[in-house]
Amino acid sequence: MTSLNFVDIPDASQRSFAQKMDREDPLKEFRGAFYFPKNEKGETLTYLCGNSLGLQPKRAREIVEEEFQDWAKFGVEGHFEGRRPWVSYHQPLAPMLADIVGAKVHEVVAMNSLTTNLHLLMATFYRPTKTRFKILIEKAAFPSDQYAVASQALFHNLDPKEAVVEISPREGELVIRTEDIEAYLEEEGESVALVMLGGINYYTGQAFDFPRIVKAGHKAGAIVGFDLAHAMGNLELKLHEWDVDFAVWCSYKYLNSGPGSVGGAFVHERFADNPDLPRFAGWWGNDPETRFEMKDTFIPAHGANGWQLSNAPVFTMAIHLASLELFAKAKMSRLREKSIALTEYLLFLIDTIPQDKFEIITPRDPKFRGSQISIRTLFDGRTLFGKITESGVICDFRNPDVIRIAPTPMYNSFDDVWTFVNLLKENVA
Protein backbone atom coordinates (compact mmCIF):
# COMPACT_ATOMS: atom_id res chain seq x y z
CA MET A 1 0.00 0.00 0.00
CA THR A 2 2.74 2.48 0.88
CA SER A 3 4.18 2.37 -2.65
CA LEU A 4 0.97 3.63 -4.27
CA ASN A 5 1.11 7.02 -5.91
CA PHE A 6 -2.55 8.01 -5.98
CA VAL A 7 -1.88 10.95 -8.31
CA ASP A 8 -0.94 8.53 -11.10
CA ILE A 9 -4.11 6.46 -10.79
CA PRO A 10 -6.84 7.84 -13.10
CA ASP A 11 -9.83 6.82 -10.98
CA ALA A 12 -8.23 7.31 -7.53
CA SER A 13 -10.60 10.14 -6.63
CA GLN A 14 -13.67 7.98 -7.29
CA ARG A 15 -15.53 6.15 -4.55
CA SER A 16 -15.25 2.91 -6.52
CA PHE A 17 -11.46 3.08 -6.14
CA ALA A 18 -11.73 3.48 -2.35
CA GLN A 19 -14.05 0.50 -2.20
CA LYS A 20 -11.62 -1.54 -4.32
CA MET A 21 -8.81 -0.67 -1.87
CA ASP A 22 -11.00 -1.88 0.98
CA ARG A 23 -11.71 -5.20 -0.72
CA GLU A 24 -7.95 -5.74 -1.11
CA ASP A 25 -7.07 -4.60 2.42
CA PRO A 26 -5.32 -7.45 4.32
CA LEU A 27 -6.55 -5.96 7.62
CA LYS A 28 -10.20 -5.56 6.61
CA GLU A 29 -11.36 -8.32 8.98
CA PHE A 30 -10.52 -6.19 12.04
CA ARG A 31 -13.20 -3.61 11.20
CA GLY A 32 -15.81 -6.17 12.18
CA ALA A 33 -14.25 -6.53 15.63
CA PHE A 34 -15.53 -3.10 16.76
CA TYR A 35 -18.82 -1.36 17.44
CA PHE A 36 -19.46 1.80 15.40
CA PRO A 37 -21.71 4.62 16.67
CA LYS A 38 -25.12 5.02 15.03
CA ASN A 39 -27.44 7.98 14.63
CA GLU A 40 -31.07 8.18 15.76
CA LYS A 41 -32.19 6.44 12.56
CA GLY A 42 -29.90 3.50 13.29
CA GLU A 43 -27.50 4.42 10.49
CA THR A 44 -23.82 3.72 11.08
CA LEU A 45 -21.74 6.87 11.39
CA THR A 46 -18.31 7.43 9.85
CA TYR A 47 -15.91 7.46 12.81
CA LEU A 48 -12.59 9.29 12.34
CA CYS A 49 -11.88 10.17 15.96
CA GLY A 50 -9.67 7.35 17.24
CA ASN A 51 -7.07 9.95 18.19
CA SER A 52 -9.47 11.10 20.90
CA LEU A 53 -11.29 7.88 21.88
CA GLY A 54 -10.95 4.52 20.19
CA LEU A 55 -13.96 2.35 19.39
CA GLN A 56 -15.17 -0.46 21.63
CA PRO A 57 -13.85 -3.94 20.77
CA LYS A 58 -16.76 -6.36 20.61
CA ARG A 59 -14.87 -8.81 22.82
CA ALA A 60 -14.57 -6.21 25.61
CA ARG A 61 -18.01 -6.95 27.05
CA GLU A 62 -17.35 -10.70 26.97
CA ILE A 63 -14.04 -10.54 28.79
CA VAL A 64 -15.33 -8.11 31.44
CA GLU A 65 -18.32 -10.38 31.98
CA GLU A 66 -15.89 -13.24 32.62
CA GLU A 67 -14.30 -11.22 35.40
CA PHE A 68 -17.74 -10.51 36.88
CA GLN A 69 -18.44 -14.24 36.81
CA ASP A 70 -15.15 -15.05 38.54
CA TRP A 71 -15.83 -12.38 41.17
CA ALA A 72 -19.26 -13.90 41.84
CA LYS A 73 -17.88 -17.43 41.90
CA PHE A 74 -14.66 -16.98 43.86
CA GLY A 75 -14.93 -13.74 45.81
CA VAL A 76 -11.51 -12.83 47.17
CA GLU A 77 -10.08 -16.13 45.94
CA GLY A 78 -10.42 -14.74 42.42
CA HIS A 79 -7.02 -13.21 43.03
CA PHE A 80 -5.62 -16.72 42.66
CA GLU A 81 -8.36 -19.02 41.32
CA GLY A 82 -9.97 -17.16 38.41
CA ARG A 83 -9.44 -17.73 34.69
CA ARG A 84 -6.97 -14.86 34.77
CA PRO A 85 -5.88 -14.55 38.43
CA TRP A 86 -6.15 -10.93 39.51
CA VAL A 87 -2.95 -10.94 41.54
CA SER A 88 -0.94 -11.14 38.31
CA TYR A 89 -3.44 -9.57 35.91
CA HIS A 90 -0.95 -7.07 34.52
CA GLN A 91 1.62 -9.69 33.57
CA PRO A 92 0.01 -11.19 30.42
CA LEU A 93 -0.43 -7.67 29.05
CA ALA A 94 3.29 -6.89 29.18
CA PRO A 95 4.46 -8.98 26.17
CA MET A 96 1.79 -7.41 23.96
CA LEU A 97 2.66 -3.90 25.15
CA ALA A 98 6.35 -4.63 24.63
CA ASP A 99 5.67 -5.57 21.00
CA ILE A 100 3.78 -2.33 20.42
CA VAL A 101 6.46 -0.04 21.86
CA GLY A 102 9.53 -2.02 20.81
CA ALA A 103 10.71 -2.95 24.29
CA LYS A 104 11.71 -5.89 26.42
CA VAL A 105 8.91 -7.38 28.49
CA HIS A 106 10.35 -6.26 31.83
CA GLU A 107 10.60 -2.67 30.54
CA VAL A 108 6.83 -2.12 30.31
CA VAL A 109 3.86 -2.26 32.66
CA ALA A 110 0.16 -1.44 32.48
CA MET A 111 -0.73 0.69 35.48
CA ASN A 112 -2.51 3.82 36.73
CA SER A 113 -3.31 6.59 34.24
CA LEU A 114 -1.14 8.66 31.93
CA THR A 115 -0.48 11.78 33.99
CA THR A 116 -0.19 9.78 37.21
CA ASN A 117 2.51 7.72 35.53
CA LEU A 118 4.19 10.86 34.22
CA HIS A 119 4.44 12.26 37.74
CA LEU A 120 5.69 8.95 39.14
CA LEU A 121 8.48 8.73 36.59
CA MET A 122 9.40 12.39 36.85
CA ALA A 123 9.69 11.86 40.60
CA THR A 124 12.49 9.47 39.71
CA PHE A 125 14.04 11.02 36.62
CA TYR A 126 13.65 14.76 37.14
CA ARG A 127 16.33 15.48 39.74
CA PRO A 128 17.21 19.17 39.33
CA THR A 129 20.37 20.76 40.65
CA LYS A 130 21.38 24.42 40.94
CA THR A 131 22.94 24.34 37.48
CA ARG A 132 20.94 21.59 35.71
CA PHE A 133 17.25 22.15 36.34
CA LYS A 134 15.42 22.91 33.08
CA ILE A 135 12.71 20.80 31.48
CA LEU A 136 12.49 21.06 27.69
CA ILE A 137 9.01 20.53 26.19
CA GLU A 138 7.36 21.46 22.91
CA LYS A 139 5.40 24.67 22.50
CA ALA A 140 1.67 23.99 22.74
CA ALA A 141 2.11 20.60 24.36
CA PHE A 142 -1.07 18.99 25.63
CA PRO A 143 -2.19 20.99 28.71
CA SER A 144 -1.88 18.02 31.07
CA ASP A 145 1.82 17.76 30.21
CA GLN A 146 2.27 21.49 30.71
CA TYR A 147 0.59 21.30 34.10
CA ALA A 148 2.64 18.26 35.09
CA VAL A 149 6.06 19.71 34.29
CA ALA A 150 5.20 23.09 35.82
CA SER A 151 3.99 21.45 39.03
CA GLN A 152 7.13 19.29 39.17
CA ALA A 153 9.22 22.47 39.00
CA LEU A 154 7.15 23.99 41.81
CA PHE A 155 7.52 20.79 43.82
CA HIS A 156 11.28 21.35 43.69
CA ASN A 157 10.87 25.01 44.71
CA LEU A 158 11.65 26.25 41.20
CA ASP A 159 9.92 28.94 39.15
CA PRO A 160 8.26 27.22 36.16
CA LYS A 161 8.89 30.33 34.06
CA GLU A 162 12.60 29.67 34.45
CA ALA A 163 12.62 25.88 34.72
CA VAL A 164 10.25 25.00 31.86
CA VAL A 165 11.57 25.82 28.37
CA GLU A 166 9.25 25.54 25.36
CA ILE A 167 10.78 24.83 21.95
CA SER A 168 8.74 26.49 19.20
CA PRO A 169 8.37 26.32 15.43
CA ARG A 170 10.30 28.94 13.53
CA GLU A 171 8.61 32.18 12.55
CA GLY A 172 6.02 31.47 9.87
CA GLU A 173 6.31 27.67 10.27
CA LEU A 174 3.84 25.21 11.75
CA VAL A 175 5.93 22.39 13.20
CA ILE A 176 9.11 22.13 15.22
CA ARG A 177 12.36 21.30 13.44
CA THR A 178 14.46 18.54 14.94
CA GLU A 179 17.60 20.54 14.23
CA ASP A 180 16.27 23.35 16.44
CA ILE A 181 15.86 20.91 19.34
CA GLU A 182 19.40 19.66 18.71
CA ALA A 183 20.76 23.20 18.49
CA TYR A 184 19.16 24.19 21.80
CA LEU A 185 20.56 21.13 23.54
CA GLU A 186 23.98 21.79 22.03
CA GLU A 187 24.00 25.37 23.29
CA GLU A 188 22.07 25.12 26.57
CA GLY A 189 22.25 21.41 27.35
CA GLU A 190 24.29 21.78 30.52
CA SER A 191 21.26 23.41 32.15
CA VAL A 192 18.72 20.80 30.94
CA ALA A 193 17.80 18.04 33.37
CA LEU A 194 14.93 16.54 31.40
CA VAL A 195 13.73 16.49 27.78
CA MET A 196 10.01 15.68 27.94
CA LEU A 197 8.18 15.71 24.61
CA GLY A 198 4.96 14.28 23.24
CA GLY A 199 5.74 11.48 20.79
CA ILE A 200 3.14 13.10 18.53
CA ASN A 201 1.86 16.61 19.14
CA TYR A 202 -1.87 16.37 19.76
CA TYR A 203 -2.69 19.58 17.82
CA THR A 204 -0.53 19.51 14.70
CA GLY A 205 -0.13 15.75 14.46
CA GLN A 206 3.66 16.11 14.15
CA ALA A 207 5.61 12.98 15.10
CA PHE A 208 8.99 13.74 16.63
CA ASP A 209 12.26 12.17 15.54
CA PHE A 210 12.83 9.93 18.57
CA PRO A 211 16.37 8.65 17.81
CA ARG A 212 17.85 12.07 17.05
CA ILE A 213 16.23 13.72 20.06
CA VAL A 214 17.34 10.95 22.42
CA LYS A 215 20.90 11.12 21.08
CA ALA A 216 21.03 14.91 21.46
CA GLY A 217 19.51 14.79 24.94
CA HIS A 218 21.92 12.17 26.19
CA LYS A 219 24.89 13.99 24.64
CA ALA A 220 23.85 17.02 26.69
CA GLY A 221 23.64 14.89 29.84
CA ALA A 222 19.86 15.03 30.15
CA ILE A 223 17.24 12.34 30.76
CA VAL A 224 14.86 11.90 27.80
CA GLY A 225 11.22 10.87 28.26
CA PHE A 226 8.12 10.88 26.04
CA ASP A 227 4.37 11.15 26.47
CA LEU A 228 3.10 8.58 23.96
CA ALA A 229 -0.62 9.38 24.30
CA HIS A 230 -0.93 9.98 20.54
CA ALA A 231 1.90 7.67 19.45
CA MET A 232 0.97 4.47 21.28
CA GLY A 233 -0.70 2.02 18.89
CA ASN A 234 -0.16 4.59 16.14
CA LEU A 235 3.55 4.71 15.31
CA GLU A 236 5.89 1.75 15.01
CA LEU A 237 8.04 2.43 18.07
CA LYS A 238 11.46 1.07 19.12
CA LEU A 239 11.90 2.53 22.58
CA HIS A 240 14.58 0.10 23.74
CA GLU A 241 16.63 0.38 20.56
CA TRP A 242 16.31 4.18 20.53
CA ASP A 243 17.61 4.25 24.12
CA VAL A 244 14.65 6.23 25.48
CA ASP A 245 14.94 6.58 29.27
CA PHE A 246 11.22 6.44 30.05
CA ALA A 247 7.82 6.88 28.44
CA VAL A 248 4.18 6.92 29.51
CA TRP A 249 0.89 6.49 27.64
CA CYS A 250 -2.86 6.15 27.90
CA SER A 251 -4.86 3.31 26.35
CA TYR A 252 -8.14 4.94 25.39
CA LYS A 253 -7.08 6.46 22.06
CA TYR A 254 -5.52 4.18 19.46
CA LEU A 255 -5.38 1.31 21.95
CA ASN A 256 -9.21 1.23 22.14
CA SER A 257 -9.41 0.32 25.82
CA GLY A 258 -12.27 2.53 26.95
CA PRO A 259 -12.67 6.04 28.40
CA GLY A 260 -10.25 6.70 31.24
CA SER A 261 -8.84 3.19 31.01
CA VAL A 262 -5.54 2.05 32.48
CA GLY A 263 -2.32 3.70 31.30
CA GLY A 264 1.18 2.32 31.01
CA ALA A 265 4.86 3.04 31.33
CA PHE A 266 8.23 2.12 29.87
CA VAL A 267 11.47 2.27 31.85
CA HIS A 268 14.68 1.33 30.07
CA GLU A 269 16.34 -1.79 31.43
CA ARG A 270 19.44 0.16 32.47
CA PHE A 271 17.34 1.24 35.47
CA ALA A 272 15.77 -2.19 36.07
CA ASP A 273 17.67 -3.22 39.17
CA ASN A 274 18.69 0.01 40.85
CA PRO A 275 17.01 0.06 44.27
CA ASP A 276 18.60 3.41 45.07
CA LEU A 277 16.57 5.31 42.48
CA PRO A 278 14.20 7.71 44.26
CA ARG A 279 10.57 6.89 43.60
CA PHE A 280 7.11 7.17 45.09
CA ALA A 281 6.66 3.57 46.16
CA GLY A 282 3.54 1.49 46.60
CA TRP A 283 2.70 -2.05 47.64
CA TRP A 284 2.37 -3.47 44.14
CA GLY A 285 5.77 -2.12 43.14
CA ASN A 286 7.39 -4.33 45.75
CA ASP A 287 9.18 -7.53 44.74
CA PRO A 288 6.35 -10.08 44.31
CA GLU A 289 8.44 -12.74 46.05
CA THR A 290 8.25 -10.80 49.32
CA ARG A 291 5.12 -8.67 48.75
CA PHE A 292 2.83 -10.76 50.93
CA GLU A 293 5.32 -10.97 53.76
CA MET A 294 4.08 -7.47 54.64
CA LYS A 295 7.51 -6.16 55.54
CA ASP A 296 8.02 -2.47 56.16
CA THR A 297 11.04 -2.24 53.82
CA PHE A 298 10.31 -1.61 50.13
CA ILE A 299 12.19 -3.86 47.71
CA PRO A 300 11.41 -2.71 44.15
CA ALA A 301 10.27 -5.31 41.65
CA HIS A 302 12.43 -5.90 38.59
CA GLY A 303 12.07 -3.42 35.75
CA ALA A 304 9.08 -1.18 35.14
CA ASN A 305 7.01 -3.22 37.59
CA GLY A 306 8.91 -1.52 40.39
CA TRP A 307 7.02 1.74 39.72
CA GLN A 308 3.58 0.24 40.34
CA LEU A 309 1.57 1.57 43.25
CA SER A 310 -1.56 -0.52 43.59
CA ASN A 311 -3.03 -3.79 42.38
CA ALA A 312 -4.56 -3.97 38.92
CA PRO A 313 -7.92 -2.28 38.16
CA VAL A 314 -9.18 -5.57 36.76
CA PHE A 315 -12.26 -4.42 34.85
CA THR A 316 -10.48 -1.72 32.86
CA MET A 317 -7.52 -4.04 32.32
CA ALA A 318 -9.93 -6.64 30.95
CA ILE A 319 -11.02 -4.21 28.24
CA HIS A 320 -7.36 -3.37 27.66
CA LEU A 321 -6.62 -7.08 27.20
CA ALA A 322 -9.44 -7.42 24.66
CA SER A 323 -7.89 -4.67 22.54
CA LEU A 324 -4.28 -5.81 22.94
CA GLU A 325 -5.25 -9.25 21.65
CA LEU A 326 -6.31 -7.56 18.40
CA PHE A 327 -3.00 -5.70 18.16
CA ALA A 328 -1.15 -8.98 18.67
CA LYS A 329 -2.99 -10.42 15.66
CA ALA A 330 -2.81 -7.36 13.44
CA LYS A 331 0.87 -6.48 14.13
CA MET A 332 2.07 -2.88 14.35
CA SER A 333 4.12 -3.11 11.15
CA ARG A 334 0.99 -3.91 9.11
CA LEU A 335 -1.10 -1.32 10.94
CA ARG A 336 1.53 1.33 10.29
CA GLU A 337 1.68 0.43 6.60
CA LYS A 338 -2.07 0.84 6.28
CA SER A 339 -2.00 4.06 8.33
CA ILE A 340 0.44 5.61 5.89
CA ALA A 341 -1.72 4.52 2.94
CA LEU A 342 -4.90 5.91 4.53
CA THR A 343 -3.33 9.29 5.33
CA GLU A 344 -1.65 9.51 1.92
CA TYR A 345 -5.05 8.88 0.35
CA LEU A 346 -6.66 11.47 2.63
CA LEU A 347 -4.07 14.08 1.64
CA PHE A 348 -4.42 13.19 -2.04
CA LEU A 349 -8.19 13.69 -1.94
CA ILE A 350 -7.93 16.92 0.05
CA ASP A 351 -5.51 18.25 -2.55
CA THR A 352 -8.27 17.99 -5.16
CA ILE A 353 -10.11 20.79 -3.29
CA PRO A 354 -9.11 24.45 -3.74
CA GLN A 355 -6.82 25.30 -0.82
CA ASP A 356 -7.85 28.92 -0.31
CA LYS A 357 -10.08 28.13 2.69
CA PHE A 358 -7.90 25.78 4.72
CA GLU A 359 -4.36 24.46 5.10
CA ILE A 360 -2.83 21.19 6.23
CA ILE A 361 -0.67 21.76 9.31
CA THR A 362 0.46 18.14 9.72
CA PRO A 363 3.80 17.20 8.11
CA ARG A 364 3.40 15.69 4.65
CA ASP A 365 6.32 13.34 5.19
CA PRO A 366 4.84 10.13 6.70
CA LYS A 367 7.97 9.71 8.85
CA PHE A 368 6.79 12.72 10.84
CA ARG A 369 3.10 11.97 11.30
CA GLY A 370 0.84 9.21 12.51
CA SER A 371 -2.81 8.57 11.66
CA GLN A 372 -3.93 12.14 12.35
CA ILE A 373 -4.20 14.91 9.77
CA SER A 374 -4.94 18.40 11.15
CA ILE A 375 -6.68 20.94 8.95
CA ARG A 376 -6.56 24.62 9.86
CA THR A 377 -9.62 26.40 8.53
CA LEU A 378 -9.19 29.94 7.21
CA PHE A 379 -12.84 30.93 7.75
CA ASP A 380 -15.59 29.81 10.16
CA GLY A 381 -14.18 26.38 10.97
CA ARG A 382 -16.63 25.70 13.78
CA THR A 383 -19.56 25.97 11.35
CA LEU A 384 -17.80 23.72 8.82
CA PHE A 385 -17.13 21.15 11.53
CA GLY A 386 -20.77 21.30 12.62
CA LYS A 387 -22.00 20.61 9.08
CA ILE A 388 -19.65 17.65 8.72
CA THR A 389 -20.86 16.25 12.05
CA GLU A 390 -24.51 16.72 11.09
CA SER A 391 -23.81 14.77 7.90
CA GLY A 392 -22.72 11.69 9.84
CA VAL A 393 -18.95 12.00 10.26
CA ILE A 394 -17.45 12.04 13.75
CA CYS A 395 -14.09 13.81 13.88
CA ASP A 396 -12.67 16.45 16.21
CA PHE A 397 -12.41 20.25 16.46
CA ARG A 398 -9.77 22.10 18.48
CA ASN A 399 -9.98 25.80 19.13
CA PRO A 400 -9.52 28.13 17.52
CA ASP A 401 -9.64 26.71 14.00
CA VAL A 402 -8.40 23.13 13.59
CA ILE A 403 -10.30 20.02 12.50
CA ARG A 404 -8.47 16.78 13.33
CA ILE A 405 -9.16 13.65 11.27
CA ALA A 406 -7.71 10.29 12.28
CA PRO A 407 -8.30 7.36 9.92
CA THR A 408 -7.31 4.57 12.30
CA PRO A 409 -5.97 1.50 10.48
CA MET A 410 -7.40 -1.07 12.89
CA TYR A 411 -11.00 -0.26 11.91
CA ASN A 412 -11.18 2.59 9.38
CA SER A 413 -11.52 2.11 5.65
CA PHE A 414 -10.57 3.98 2.50
CA ASP A 415 -14.29 4.53 1.96
CA ASP A 416 -14.43 6.33 5.33
CA VAL A 417 -11.72 8.67 4.06
CA TRP A 418 -13.54 9.23 0.77
CA THR A 419 -16.79 9.97 2.63
CA PHE A 420 -15.15 12.61 4.81
CA VAL A 421 -13.42 14.40 1.95
CA ASN A 422 -16.56 14.35 -0.16
CA LEU A 423 -18.41 16.11 2.67
CA LEU A 424 -15.53 18.54 3.12
CA LYS A 425 -15.62 19.35 -0.59
CA GLU A 426 -19.39 19.92 -0.57
CA ASN A 427 -19.33 22.18 2.48
CA VAL A 428 -16.27 24.19 1.47
CA ALA A 429 -17.88 24.83 -1.92
Structure description:
- With 429 residues, this protein is of the alpha/beta class.
- It has 2 domains: 6-35 and 331-428, Aspartate Aminotransferase, domain 1, CATH 3.90.1150; 65-328, Aspartate Aminotransferase, domain 2.
- It is 36% helix and 13% strand.
- The protein is built from 14 helices and 15 strands.
- The strands form 4 sheets. Strands 4-10-9-8-7-5-6 form a 7-stranded mixed β-sheet, with helices on both faces. Strands 11-12-15-14 form a 4-stranded antiparallel β-sheet, with helices on one face.
- Strand 8, helix 10 and strand 9 (246-249) form a beta-alpha-beta unit.
- Helix 8 packs parallel to helix 9 (210-219).
- 45% of the residues are buried.
Fold blueprint:
Layout: H1 15-23, E1 34-35, E2 46-47, E3 56-57, H2 59-74, H3 78-81, H4 93-101, E4 108-110, H5 114-125, E5 134-138, H6 143-155, H7 160-163, E6 164-167, H8 178-188, E7 192-198, H9 210-219, E8 223-227, H10 239-242, E9 246-249, E10 264-267, H11 314-330, H12 332-350, E11 358-360, E12 373-377, H13 381-390, E13 393-394, E14 396-398, E15 402-405, H14 414-428
Parallel strand pairs: 2-13, 5-6, 5-7, 7-8, 8-9
Antiparallel strand pairs: 1-3, 4-10, 9-10, 11-12, 12-15, 14-15
Helix pairs in contact: 1-14, 2-11, 4-11, 5-6, 8-9, 12-14
